[in-house]
Amino acid sequence: MSSDHQEVVIRLEEVGKEYPRYATRKELLRHLLFPFRFKENSFTALSPLSLEIHKGECVGIMGVNGSGKSTMLQIIAGTLYPTSGRVFLNGRVASLLELGSWIDASDTGRQNIYTAGYSRGMKKSEIESHIDGIIEFAEIGDFIDQPVCTYSTGMVMRLAFATCIYLEADILLLDEVFAVGDFHFAQKCIAFLREYIKDKTVLLVSHDANIISMLCSRAILLDKSKLIADGHPRQITERYMELCYAEKQEVNVKEEQQWTPLPADFREGGLVKSTGYLPGERSFGKGGAEILETKFVSEREGQLDQVRGGEPLRFIVKIRALKRLELPAIGFSVRTPQGINLWGDTSIPGAIPVLEEGHMMEAVFHFVLPRLENGEYTVGVAVSTGKIEDHSIQIWNHNAMKFKVNSSYPLQGALVGLPMSAIDCREIES
User: Fold this and answer.
1) Residue 255 confidence class, pLDDT cut points 50, 70, 90
2) How confident is the model at residue 382 (pLDDT cuts 50, 70, 90)?
3) 46 — pLDDT class (breaks 50, 70, 90)
4) Which domains does the chain possess?
C-alpha cells in the first residue's frame, strides 16, 4: 500500500448524535424553562462509532432509510454537531449533501460560484481559474449571469455539482447525488468521478449497489444508527440487500462457509470455466425452498463445464419446496468481479400456481452468452413467492455459481460485448 493510502484524512472517534424527543408541547415547554431539572427522552440518530478514512479512498455508505447515513455525513461536513465524540479532518472539505441547498436563488450562477469559493477560503484568482470549467460542465451557457431563480431544476443541480467538484477540495462528500437529474447528467457525473477519485478522498451515500460497486474501493453499512459492517463493496451490497428484504419480511441469513476459488487450468481463447451449485455461499430468505442444482447447458452439446462467449445457452436451476409455495418463481443475476449486476431475469410467477412441500421445480433460461471481460463472475439465484410487486424471498444465494473468463481477445472499454455474426471491412470509392 502506498504512503498516500496510509495517510488518514478523516477520523471519527466514538462520534454519535442524539435528538431530544417530546411527547407533548407541555414537555417541550418544561424542558425549555427548566433544561436541567427534568430528564428528557432522546432519539439516537447515530450511535457512537469510530472510523478511519485514508487518502485516496472512495468509500460507499449504505443503509436503509433512517440508518444514520446522512447524519454521519453532516457531522463530517460540519453542518451538524455531534452529541458525543470527536471528528478529525486533514484537508479541505466539499459537500453535496442536499443538491443546491446552499445556492442563493436571488444571485446569479456566477455569484454563487464566488460565494462557494470564498466560503472555502479560496482567493478570487483561484476561483476564476475554475469558472470556465464549471460553466462548461454544468452546460448552463449564458444563463451563468442570470439569477438562479430563472433556472430549471436540472440547471440548479448541474451548477451545484459542477461547483463542488471543480473548486479545489481534498475530501468530497456526496449524498444521493445520482438519485436526481436526468440520465445524461448522472452518466456525466459518474464518468467524471471515475477520474476524480484517483487522487481525492470521496464519501458517497447511495442506495444503488451498482454505483457503489463501480466507484468505491471500500464500503460501510449502517443499520438502526449503528455501523455493522466495513469491507469490500461486493460484500456490503449483498448485506444491504438482505437488510432491505428484512424490513419487509422475516429472513434467515446463512453465512458463507468459505470462498470457493475456480481452478486456474482452463483453456485459452475466450472459454468460460464454471462451477456447479455452491450451497456453502452466503444466502438469506424465509427458508421455504432449497436450491438443488445450477448449470449451463449448450443448446447442442448438453451440460457444460466450459462455454464460449457468443454461444446460445440454457441456464437451468432446480429447486425443492420445503413448505407449500404459492406463485413460486426462480430468478438469477450475473455480476462482475466488482459486484456490478450485468443481466438477469425471473420466471413468471403463476407458471406453477402452487408447489407443494417436497415437490421440485425447474426453470430454464435460454439466452446467448455475451463476450465478457476477463475475470471471475458470479451468478446469484433466488426463489420467491407471491406477485412480483409484493413478493417474499424464500432463498437468495448471492454466489450460487461462479465462472471464470480468460479471453485472448479482451474487451476494450466495455463490460460486455455482443456476439457478432460477422464484421466486414472493405475499401470503398470516395
Assistant:
1) low
2) very high
3) very high
4) 3-241 (3.40.50.300), 249-410 (2.70.50.60)
Interatomic CA distance for residues 61 and 97, integer angstroms: 13
Distance CA(429)–CA(188), nearest Å, equals 38
Alpha carbon of 276 to those of 88, 266, 365, 402: distances in Å?
49, 15, 16, 8
pLDDT surpasses 60 at 5: no
pLDDT at 192: 80
How far is CA 61 from each of CA 66, 132, 375, rounded to the nearest angstrom? 13, 32, 26
| Alpha helices (runs of H) in 197-264, residue ranges in sequence order | 209-215, 233-248
Cell 440547471: give the residue.
155
Contact 398, 280 (CB under 8 A): no
φ, ψ (nearest 5 deg) of residue 18 = -125, 150
Q: What is the largest CA-CA distance in the chain?
A: 93
Higher pLDDT: 310 or 373? It is 373
The gap between the terminal CA atoms of the chain, to the nearest Å, is 55
pLDDT at 230: 93
Residue 172, H or E segment: strand 171-175
Orientation of helix 109-119 relative to helix 124-138, angle to 10°: 130
> What DSSP element (H or E) covers 221?
strand 218-223
Whole-number Å distance between alpha carbons of 323 and 355: 8
Q: Alpha helices, DSSP H only, in 151-218?
A: 153-166, 183-196, 209-215
User: Mean pLDDT across the chain, nearest whole number?
Assistant: 81
Instruction: Give the residue from 406, 176, 221, 384 showing the smallest Cα distance to 291.
Output: 384
The SS3 call for residue 85 is strand
The amino acid at 248: K
